[in-house]
Design goal:
The chain is built from 6 helices and 7 strands. The protein is α/β, with parallel strands linked by helices. It has one domain (11-233): NAD(P)-binding Rossmann-like Domain (Rossmann fold, 3-Layer(aba) Sandwich), CATH 3.40.50.720. It has a 7-stranded parallel sheet with strand order 3-2-1-4-5-6-7, with helices on both faces. The longest helix has 29 residues, at 107-135. The protein is globular, with a radius of gyration of 17 Å. 43% of the residues are buried.
Length: 239
């Protein structure tokens, strides 16, 4: 393993990898030498991301997946392992949002946000954990949010998913650390993507997707005898 390619020979899976934060994370991990397993719901955007990432990564496997579906996740994980090898790193990045008064949220909005932001992390982690346990190594990174630590107007549904994710992350860390598996949460503030509502804010003062990718790169190169539980990321200047 060279210092220029600290993840050479490693396999990293990134969900929601076709754009925004997920694409930036995959790009960074690929540049660090990792073989990439990618999934997202949109086949066209995933194909475009795959072509881009093949210019930096030694190997890329991509598959359209609805990460709220256990059967699709199982198929993807098995195919990724067959094409790339055992999974060393999982980045649970896929997420959606709904913002408005909690009393106005529909059951469908609740299910969509909670299933994508929370249930998918449970399902993906459950799918990769047995192999990591067997090999006694691995790193699972959940892209959470400062909304998982703070409340705000019109954020009830989204905050519920991210507070739940923080609880799940902490418990997973305790369950899996005995097997040498490290679990971390990255909690960004508002990022300049099409995902978050930031009308009226200066995009130049918001976090960029590359800022989140940098945090992930730091986590996966942490010395093996320790792990960082949480990373909170805020823009230097208030937007």
């Amino acid at each position: 393993m060279s210092s220029a390619k600290p993840l050479e020979g490693k396999v990293a899976v990134v969900t929601g990898a076709s754009r925004g934060i997920g694409l930036a994370i995959a790009q960074r991990l690929g540049e660090m030498g990792a073989k990439l397993g990618l999934c997202s719901r949109d086949p066209k955007k995933l194909e475009a991301a795959t072509q881009q990432l093949r210019t930096v990564a030694s190997a890329v496997f991509a598959m359209p997946v609805d990460v709220t579906r256990a059967d699709q996740i199982s198929s993807f994980v098995q195919a990724a392992k067959k094409n790339l090898g055992p999974i060393d790193i999982l980045v649970n990045n896929a997420g959606v949002g709904w913002f408005g008064p909690t009393q106005d949220a529909t059951e469908e909005a609740w299910d969509s946000v909670l299933d994508t932001n929370l249930k998918s992390v449970f399902l993906m982690s459950k799918a990769v954990a047995p192999s990591m346990i067997e090999r006694k190594t691995g790193h699972i990174i959940n892209i959470a949010s400062l909304a998982g630590k703070n409340t705000f107007k019109n954020g009830g549904v989204y905050c519920a998913s991210k507070w739940g994710l923080m609880g799940l992350t902490g418990c997973m860390a305790e369950d899996l650390r005995q097997y040498g598996i490290r679990i971390s949460a990255v909690c960004p503030g508002t990022v300049d993507t099409e995902f978050s509502p930031h009308t009226g804010k200066d995009p130049a003062k918001l976090l960029q997707s590359e800022d989140i990718a940098h945090a992930v790169a730091m986590l996966v190169t942490q010395a093996p005898q320790s792990f960082i539980s949480e990373v909170l990321i805020r823009p230097t200047a208030k937007p």
